[in-house]
Design brief:
single chain, 183 residues, alpha+beta, four-stranded antiparallel beta sheet, elongated
């Protein structure tokens, strides 16, 4: 548009607003205007929600989720406590320096103490969603008889999102979608 067209539109808009501001509306006209404005706001809100939901489904953007305060971490996720190795026969544990167990570079300094790294696979746990209580603000699901919300951790997997028929979990940066188990 040219600047002349913009000026004409601005002047017309100013005249219309000035006329509306100067007019005294009857009660019926006020009610009709309120209904029109409310309807326009409702339609705009619905349109934006549809666009945002469409964008969410097209793009797989996942925001980092911090576990909710007070949420429990399952025992399987908690780090195992390490036991200090027993002293070889003839040596007492008191002769060992206290920094032995704390020095992360000690194994590289003493090749005879190096232990081979064993690549242990994580146990595969069959997760089943037996129910979803859908709520726009706080959806809740039942996975393997445990009630979880977004941000909770179950078997080392973080609940990152919920839909009406599925729960989305994340473990080590990988997404896992579990559909609602229907019998």
């Amino acid at each position: 548009m040219t600047s002349a067209n913009n000026n004409i539109l601005q002047q017309g808009l100013k005249k219309s607003i000035t006329r509306l501001a100067a007019k005294r509306f009857s009660t019926t006209e006020k009610i009709v205007l309120v209904i029109i404005v409310a309807g326009a706001l409702f339609v705009a809100n619905h349109w934006f929600n549809v666009k945002i939901n469409a964008l969410k489904t097209r793009t797989k953007i996942i925001e980092p989720v911090v576990p909710a305060p007070g949420s429990r971490t399952p025992a399987a996720v908690q780090p195992a406590q390490t036991k200090t190795p027993a002293a070889p026969e003839g040596e007492s544990a008191e002769k060992k320096p206290a920094t032995d167990s704390r020095d992360p570079f000690l194994a590289s300094k003493n090749p005879e103490k190096q232990q081979p790294v064993v690549n242990q696979k994580k146990p595969v746990i069959d997760l089943k969603v037996s129910g979803i209580l859908w709520d726009e603000n706080i959806p809740t699901a039942i996975i393997n008889s445990q009630v979880v919300k977004i941000g909770d951790i179950i078997y080392g997997k973080t609940v990152v999102d919920m839909e009406k028929d599925a729960v989305i979990l994340m473990e080590d940066g990988e997404l896992l979608v579990i559909k609602l188990h229907k019998e």
